[in-house]
Amino acid sequence: MTSPKFRPLHFGVTEVALRDGAPGVRYVSAPQPLDPHPERMSDRMLHWVQAAPERVFMARREHLSGGATGEWQALTYAQAWAQACCIAQGLIDRGLSADRPVVILSENSLEHALLSLGCMVAGVPFVPTSPAYSLVSQDFEKLRHVLKTVTPGLVFATDPERYGKAILATVDTGTEVLLARGALAGRPSTAFAALVQTPATAAVDAARQATGLDTVVKFLFTSGSTKLPKAVTNTQRMWCANQQQMLQSMPVLGSEPPVLVDWLPWNHTFGGNHNFGMVIYNGGTLYIDDGKPTPALVGETLRNLREIAPTVYFNVPTGFEAIAHAMHTDDVLRKNLLSRVKMFFYAGAALAQPVWDSLYASQEREVGERIVMTTGLGMTESGPFALFVTHPHARAGDLGVPTPGMEIKLVEMGGKTEVRYRGPNITPGYWRDAAETAANFDDEGFFCSGDAVVWIDEANPHLGLKFDGRIAEDFKLATGTFVSVGPLRGKIIAAAAPYVQDVVLTGINLKEVGAMVFPTQAVRALSGLDASAPMAQVLEAPAVVDYFQGLVNRLALSATGSAGRIARLCLLAEPPALDRGEVTDKGSINQRAVLLHRDATVQALHADALPHIFKPQ
């Protein structure tokens, strides 16, 4: 069998250096040192302003009435810099600081980007906040927590129609409100246009020069999987070092200015640090995609990808699943997306192998070769880039090797191996939370990730590591047998593609492993019912019942013991809820929160008290 042909892609790190520590501890690093990097991200922005002032820095489609989108509105590097300096002056005039930062409530936009740049120039931290905290949440608990933690001096939102209710409910009356357009009834506000018109003075460059490696550039809040979100301190050192690490691990970023078509939210480290920072650091162009990998919005993403050809493309697994499905029949999408892309990259969750294979099939059909699909492992606290695959033949679950300048520590913990991080890209801690900071670093200064890993091939560590679940998610059956949640969950999702969005495993201290399944919208087509049919009715359709009974039977045949055997399975008609912390706005499932809030379903599943339970036959 001949090896598949891949579009050429150079990997910057292909080996690891190992050293042993105390019993059960190993240290792993890249042989390459971290190359020099600037002291502040604004240095890179200014470099490109001078080197390529007319290059498009960022663009977004014009928003028309009725929710439609029109033509692209673009900002060049020179235009973005000039406006950012005016904004910086306005922030300086207001005396804002790390103790009174700028909180950004709304989604990705040109105004959001300019305000972020202005903050960077002025040395004022900004706090991109999940829009769902304002638009989806009913009690605003997480938004109140964010505001209480960072005590902002300025709060920005795009418009009062969508964000007004949250602002009036949570923002202190003494805090200035900045709006991209419109006004807030009963509450004074400042127009974004007025802030941009602030005349810049010599104080702007002086403020920028005063920032350095230890200056706090932003606070990013964790998803709050088990508690209220924590404010991760992001310094200039952390961001700049991580971008240089990315460049050395992914040399493709320096081969030509990257072009991104990207929806990933800037309140998450993947979109806001990894991708937004990549564009600034490497002089690229970012086309803001107002689509999302949901049935209602994926059409906008596909429209944009038919028109703009990225050089590198990033998404979460559900996004790649939608693209893989569309490329089977959409010739224009397939031709444009694959015309110059050098690398695909997914993160946020495991990509099912059938989706991966489907993408490869479309690529080979269109261009006669495969596009390398890469991934890695990281988190908000690591900048996020930490581990990266080392070769084009990666498989679902592979994570790769450490990036230059960062050392990882592998620690055996009750049958699992936790990966811990130390390096210039690691956060100094959580803002105004010394106790939480101390609890998350070990005695050698390594950040304890809670992620479990194993070697792809113990005989060849240079292939790197693969994911082995979250240590906190694993549990024991009543027999004392450990259930490794991550691999088993991934196995179910892969076997059930494209009908399963996510799986939560049950059975803590019980005799058997169960599974609660969140189905995808694809089950509607499987059911044969009208698109308006309630999901509960869809899940009772004979074709759906037959499919999932067959799934349980197939899984049972491949199980090797009680910890890997799904003894009972149920389908959930109600999607995971953001307000209950069951899911992040990026779509990552929180196993513990689902188990907590759906305990009645768990108990009924294991007591045979649900209307329909699938068991192996």
Summarize the helices and strands and which ones pair or pack:
Blueprint: E1 17-20, E2 25-29, H1 41-51, E3 56-63, E4 69-76, H2 77-93, E5 102-104, H3 110-122, E6 126-128, H4 132-135, H5 141-150, E7 154-157, H6 160-170, E8 176-179, E9 190-191, H7 192-196, H8 202-210, E10 216-221, E11 231-235, H9 236-249, H10 252-255, E12 259-262, H11 269-282, E13 285-288, H12 298-307, E14 312-315, H13 317-327, H14 331-337, E15 343-346, H15 353-367, E16 373-374, E17 376-378, E18 385-388, E19 398-402, E20 407-413, E21 416-422, H16 434-439, E22 447-455, E23 465-470, E24 475-476, E25 482-483, H17 485-495, E26 500-506, E27 513-519, H18 522-527, H19 535-538, H20 542-558, E28 566-571, H21 591-597, H22 599-606
Parallel strand pairs: 3-13, 5-6, 5-7, 7-8, 8-9, 12-13, 14-15, 15-16, 27-28
Antiparallel strand pairs: 1-2, 2-20, 3-4, 10-11, 17-18, 18-19, 19-23, 20-21, 21-22, 22-23, 24-25, 26-27
What would your notes on this structure say?
The protein is built from 22 helices and 28 strands. The chain has 617 residues and is of the alpha/beta class. It has a nine-stranded antiparallel beta sheet with strand order 1-2-20-21-22-23-19-18-17. A hairpin with a 6-residue loop joins strand 17 and strand 18. The longest helix has 17 residues.
